[in-house]
Amino acid sequence: MNGTLYLIPNTLGPTDSLDQVIPSHVQQLTSRLTHFVAENAKTARAFLKQVGTAQPIQEIAISELNVNTPPAALAALLAPLQAGHDVGLLSEAGVPAVADPGADLVRLAHAHDIPVRPLVGPSSILLSVMASGLNGQSFAFNGYLPTDAAQRAKRLKELETRSRQEKQTQLFIETPYRNAAMLEALLGACQGNTLICVATDISLPTETIHTRTSAQWKGLLAAGKAPDFHKKPTVFLLLAH
Description:
Elements: E1 5-8, H1 24-32, E2 35-38, H2 41-51, E3 61-64, H3 74-77, H4 79-82, E4 87-90, H5 102-111, E5 116-118, H6 124-132, E6 139-144, H7 149-166, E7 169-173, H8 179-189, E8 195-200, E9 208-213, H9 214-222, E10 234-239
């Protein structure tokens, strides 16, 4: 009989209060597993050490699945499941398989009739939509936008147009050290009445979430009141009228 693939959420950043973001039953289930798939074995062990494990952590099997994993290697990751072991798919941050390479393994598990069970935990995407005040009935996550300035500006205008036509909230992320450049690009591409939310360090003690119009953001930046988001994980959201 196949084991179960558990989708285990991680914190969205360093925290001393694990219980505030990871439910106790998720921690308890995680602590008893002996096989894991994670993006990075070292950081996965650090998380498991914080959760606590039923057996010595050096005896726990952790296989890596990240952007460098070739598709041909996925089948081998199913072997423990097919041998009857339960396996935890652990995200580097947030929930697995959402903006995360784990989705490929989940799809393969379904193809082999392996049970998949998602566990409750923090998702920066959903939490930012909840806190933004923008349209939570219709929204789209667009991942990373182009790094080329011209292509990025074009893409932002496309997303603003789509948002206006479909009344749909558009979400995207950026490499943390480029957050300031992303906000400036947003303000340069969007009309003055477009709502923009900047959600930083969600669920962490340093969390900040602010929604303003593009024109209001321009005024804040001109006054030297930029968000405190340098090198901090941030979700950007827009809703055009």
